[in-house]
Amino acid sequence: MLVLTRKLGESIAIDDDIKITVVQIKGKQIRLGIEAPKETKVHREEVYLAIQEQNKKAAVNASPSNIRNLVSFIKK
Amino acid sequence: MKVNNQIFGEISYSNEDLITFPDGLPGFTKISKFLLITREELAPFSVLQSIERPEVFFVVVDPKKFRPKYKAEIGMEELKPINITDSSQAKMYSIVTVSDVRENTSMNLKAPIIINETKKMGMQVILKLSDYEIECKIFAPQKTVVKEPVQIRRQEVELNFNC
Fold first, then answer.
1. Residues A33-62: pLDDT tens digits?
2. Hey, are the CB atoms on B80 and A63 less than 8 Å from each other?
3. Helix (H), strand (E) at residue A32
4. In angstroms, what CA-CA distances link B14 with A26, A38, B10, B24, B114?
5. Residue-wise pLDDT tens digits, B81-115
6. Whether A2 contacts chain B with CB within 8 A
7. Is A70 within 8 Å of chain B by CB?
8. What ipTM did this prediction achieve?
């Protein structure tokens, strides 16, 4: 991993079109500003990982017996 | 061409039926071709079947069938990869996590699937602005606003909003 030290207000440039700026430092929290092309996907890592896990769970749980159950659940 | 689905058996399709997910789905980024299978016996649910990995499929549903007030805030720019220029081109689905327990059946409101039906392209969008639940229990009773002090009422409205 590349590790860089930045001060408040300073930035990191990634390629020509991505810029990450330290916007605020407050105790153990750092606010980052991210400027990137709109199609660049930027997510809080834990949210992205949670979506990944949920997708995997959804695929695993989609068994024929569970889906038969689903049809009966909807009729209740 | 044909693909074998665990629920419906062998399904015939032609290439123009396939929906391309340019980036796959989180956790499944290497698969990009899907078939959306809608059958009366499974309504209102549909099945999103992977072509590259026939063992992979998702149960999906229009989230509004269960949460009519659901509103996903997505910028048009975010939908560029699937060539959506107008919201009328977008059809929305939620991935359902099925369970043998009715009450545990959930849908993902935090990351809806958007499909451009004319261009046959799709993507899963992770909502940044709204705090919807990843596991919204679809058969759970929805919170209703009751005549209580203002403080409690506000809390219930928020719960309702997230799922």
1. 999 987 788 999 999 999 999 999 999 999
2. no
3. strand A29-35
4. 57, 33, 13, 20, 21
5. 999 988 899 999 999 999 999 999 999 999 999 99
6. no
7. yes
8. 0.87
pLDDT band at residue B75, thresholds of 50, 70 and 90?
confident
pLDDT for B38 beyond 90: yes
Q: Please state the three-class secondary structure of chain B as a single string.
A: CEEEECCCEEEECCHHHCEECCCCECCECCCCEEEEECCHHHCCEEEEEECCCCCCEEEEECHHHCCCCCCCCCCHHHHHHHCCCCHHHEEEEEEEECCCCHHHCEECCCCCEEEECCCCEEEECCCCCCCCCCCEECCCCCCCCCCCCHHHHHHHHHHHHHC
Separation between Cα atoms, residue A11 and residue A34, nearest integer Å = 9
The Cα-based distances of B85 to B88, B91, B112, B119, B151 in angstroms read 9, 13, 18, 11, 41
**pLDDT tens track for B115-148:** 999 999 999 999 988 889 999 999 987 655 455 5
CA distance B5 to A69: 17
- Comparing CB atoms, the residue among B98, B108, B110 nearest residue A70 is B98
To the question of pTM greater than 0.80 for the whole model, the response is yes
User: Which of A40, A67, A69 would you mutate first to test chain B, the one with the most B CBs within 10 A?
Assistant: A67
